[in-house]
Every structure is written in structure tokens, then in C-alpha cells.
Amino acid sequence: MRAVDLIHKKRDGEQLTFAEIDYLIKGYCQGEIPDYQMSAWSMAVFFRGMTKKETADLTMAMAHSGDTVDLGAIHGLTADKHSTGGVGDKTTLVVAPLVAAIGVPVAKMSGRGLGHTGGTIDKLEAIEGFRTELQRDDFFAQVNDIGLAVIGQSGNLTPADKKLYALRDVTATVESIPLIASSVMSKKIAAGADVIVLDVKAGSGAFMKSLEDAEHLARAMVDIGTEVGRRTAAVISDMDQPLGAAIGNALEVAEAIATLKGQGPKDLERLCLTLAAHMAVLAGKAGSIEEAELILREALRSGAALDKFRALVVAQGGDPSMVDQPDRLPAATAFVEVKAESSGWVTGIQAEQLGLAAMKLGAGRATKEAAIDYAVGMLLKKKVGDAVSLGETLAVLHTHEGYVGLDAIMSETAAAFTIDSAQPEAKPLLLSIVTA
Ligand code: URA
After folding, report:
1. In the chain, % of residues over pLDDT 90
2. Most CB atoms within 10 A, among 56, 183, 270, 377?
3. Is the dihedral of CA 53, 58, 62, 65 positive or negative?
4. Which residues have CB under 6 Å of ligand 1?
5. Among residues 10, 81, 82, 230, which one is catalytic?
6. In the predicted model, what is the mean pLDDT of residues 353-369?
7. Ligand 1 geometric centre to CA of 414 (Å)
8. 400 contacts 376 by C-beta, under 8 angstroms
9. EC number(s) on record (predicted)?
10. ipTM of this predicted complex?
């Protein structure tokens, strides 16, 4: 086989076999196929697309390019969720303990944030002492013991995806639905869960800006999961504004704890319940979404979900007093109000812009190596649909005395809010559900 012939074939719109796709992925991983050939092939895929079968074959070739996790040692069907990334998205911190509380085991590998979106692992590390690296056997034992564990991704999970994603990033081939779908699903499949629920965001703060693109991506991912024997569903939600009110690591942990107590923002609670309900149904814990929601609401009301979160913190070495008294989490020392420059209604909030502003305050990383300040970020005081008067507070920046560059961040934060004289039509948070 020769890479050039396979590039030629894809360029002309023909379908590749599993053996051909696997040859490209293995050859690329082993350094036998150079970047320029893989770039040409990715661009051919970008323009020609892939069939369902090709997309599933690419996913499996990448899933088996490194370590795979066999969750067979865990009792029961394990569930995982994946978010395509958003601003203020702390759903894993709520959903994982919530489904674990009703008996669905969660053995989760999560990522760190980069750019304007935060990562679950960074958020959990805002809790003093929380360890995000566990030995494989300890990881399994913890899930069997308390029903959940959340750790960072292992070093050698899907190396083909890491290499190909880095190449796509610099060759304008990221925005290809089969390439995104296989990239996301290869990681989920390698991580081993039986049930996969995808939280696909659509809107200004998301990777997929339109609902149509988000639906295509969700369909491609659900088809891959189904094709390879995983129970998969996707929930498409609006990311035209941040989720909840908190952006920044400790602030998001505190908001997740409030949600586990039934006192969180309604949009966050709604999305978490929906994701958790789909996980519960696919795992066989409920016969319908409605029934699952009833059981899950009871887990919130009774404190069982919060107890699971506390058990997770204790099991992974974190300070549980931060769960019961979230004001003990790392906190900012200076608070700056960003005020409205006109009166009217908030009709839009540029989530990406706020994510970038929080990152500049120190809540996220501009480069992979950058350190994070867990305490900083912002709390939104207004969301889309709220009335606002001139001079009223839109958001509070959580920062430190003497932070240089605050004026620019205040202006960027204010500019992220669109204020119009007409009240906007209410837009639903949940846009669509894609099932097998
Ligand atoms: N996230 C991924 O994991 N892969 C992509 O290709 C795009 C977003």
C-alpha cells in the first residue's frame, strides 16, 4: 500500500477500506507517513467527507493507536459523558456524582482546559489536595467502592488523535465533521465506558456555531458509538451564552456544589438533569427520561448526589470541608463590578469573549504550560433575557489587587453583553436530542 494512492482515492471521492485507513493511522503514528501526506489526506477528507463506515473505521483505528481502558473490572454498565466544550461548563462536576448516586458507575477521564474553555481536571484541582492521577487498579477499586472516579487522561490514550489533531490545527482541517466526530469518539471508546452521552454545544461560545452543524456532528458521533456497540446519545444545547453564572475554577466548583444542593442556576440544573437522565436510561436504571428525572431529582433533594461528590473528594485526597463550606475554596482578593453602559434588555452574551477575559485574569491557560489561578474568574449578574438599567452590574470580576490590564478586561467584559431596547424572544437551552 502507498499513502499517495490513498490520498488520490479520497481526493477523487472514493471510499477507503478499514485496512487502508488503519495503514494511514499506523504509518502516521510510527513516523513512516510524513505530515505533508497526512495533511493532504485530511484536506481530501475535509472536501470529500467520509461515509458512516469510514468514520467508524477511522475512530477505531485511532482508538487502538495507544492504550485502551478495559472497564470489565467494574461492576455494572459504566457511563461517561463528553462535552464538546463551552464557557462555564461545569456539568461533569454535577452529572458524575448525580448518576453515581442512583447506581450508575462513572469511571471518567477528563481533560484540562486550553484557550477560552475550562477543563474538569483544573476545576477539581481547585479543591485543596484533590489528586487527579490514580493508578489503574486504584481507579477501578474506587469506582467499585464509591461508584465514581474522575482522573486526568492517561499519557498514551489515542496518540494518533493527538498527532492528527495538532496537524489539523495548523492545516485548516479542524472543521470537518467526520474528523471531529472520530477524534472525540476515539477518546471515549478508548476510555472504555459502555454508555456515552454527548453534550454537544451550538452557538457563539461553541465549536459548532449553528444548530445544523451541531446536529450533523451529534448524528455522526451517535452513529459511530452505535456502530461499535456503545449505547450512545447526544443532547444539543445552546452555548450562545455561558452556562450558569460562574466562570473560573473555584467559582465553578462552588456553583456545581450549589447545584448539587438544588440551589444552582436553573439552566445548569436543567442541562445536568437531561444529560444524567439519558445516561440513566441508557444504563438501564430507568425506563424513560421522565422516570429517570424523577429518580435524579430525588437524589438531589435527599442530598445523595452531594454525598457522592463529597465521597469523590475524600477518596481522591481533597479537603471535604470545601464541599460543606465552599467559601473555603481559593478566593479572590479584589472584586470589580462591570456596569451596563445603557438601559434595555440583554439580548446576547458572547461566551467566547467572556471565556477569554476569564483566561486573561488567570483562570485558564494561554499555553499548555501556563499556571492557573484557581481563585479568579467572574460571576455573571445578568443573562440573556434580563432587563438592565444604565449603571447596573452585569458581571463581577474576581481578581487580585494590583492586577495589571484590568481596564481592558473590564471593557472586553462589558462589550460581550449586547443590550437592546426590545425584549428578546425566549430561546430554549435544550435544542435537540439525537439518539441511536
Ligand atoms: N475536540 C476534539 O476532541 N477533537 C476535535 O477534532 C475537535 C474538538
Report:
1. 87
2. 377
3. positive
4. 165, 174, 179-180, 183-184, 207
5. 82
6. 88
7. 30
8. yes
9. 2.4.2.2
10. 0.96
